[in-house]
């Protein structure tokens, strides 16, 4: 079904027909239509690389560029849809009691390809409490922060994840020893499509941190810039500390 067919189908259906909802439906349909060709392009590029047993340097570069551009376009589509879901729809949030240590471990495994060549350390405070949040959303926030740290610091740099807490909030800080955030951009980073002036040739959409902030907001948390103990950039998420329910093991 094409994007146009999708939007007409959805406008005839009962439910929310507000402009924001219609825009969401249209963009979702377009994203669906574009994802198919992107997947085919990636697959064909991989197949071509396998059919050429000894590609020339130029051929290998073209194939790698083809795959990279298709993947980046797909990532841009996903970022746009995530931002729209967080800001123009009623996102479904599954708040459950979670172990932050497990969620951090999952995020590190998902982001492993970004972290190759970096020195990663994880420091979780003793007695770190169980927290109530949607693990999928928080995993995505942490993966985004790890990707950002790896993207904007030289290979071999130090990246650390620090989890600590006080009586009211629990914090997870992702920090590095890179160049840090440009002066005056501490809050600009959270605006959609805003990128720092010193990004150079590094590709990006300018959506990642805006999406993270929205995900934290719907989770009842907050997102902020903090001082990095390593001297570079420090980005932190905070979630409220609550008392977990008492489980009666005898019943």
From TrEMBL:
Name the catalysed reactions.
ATP + protein L-histidine = ADP + protein N-phospho-L-histidine
Q: EC no.?
A: 2.7.13.3
- Annotated Gene Ontology MF terms? phosphorelay sensor kinase activity
Q: Where is the Histidine kinase domain?
A: 29-243
Q: Which UniProt keywords apply?
A: Phosphoprotein
Q: Which SUPFAM superfamilies match?
A: ATPase domain of HSP90 chaperone/DNA topoisomerase II/histidine kinase, Homodimeric domain of signal transducing histidine kinase
Tree of life domain: Bacteria
Q: Which GO terms describe its cellular component?
A: plasma membrane
Enzymatic class: transferase
Q: Which SMART domains does the protein's record reference?
A: HATPase_c, HisKA
Question: What name appears for this protein in its UniProt entry?
Answer: histidine kinase
Q: Which organism is it from?
A: Duganella margarita
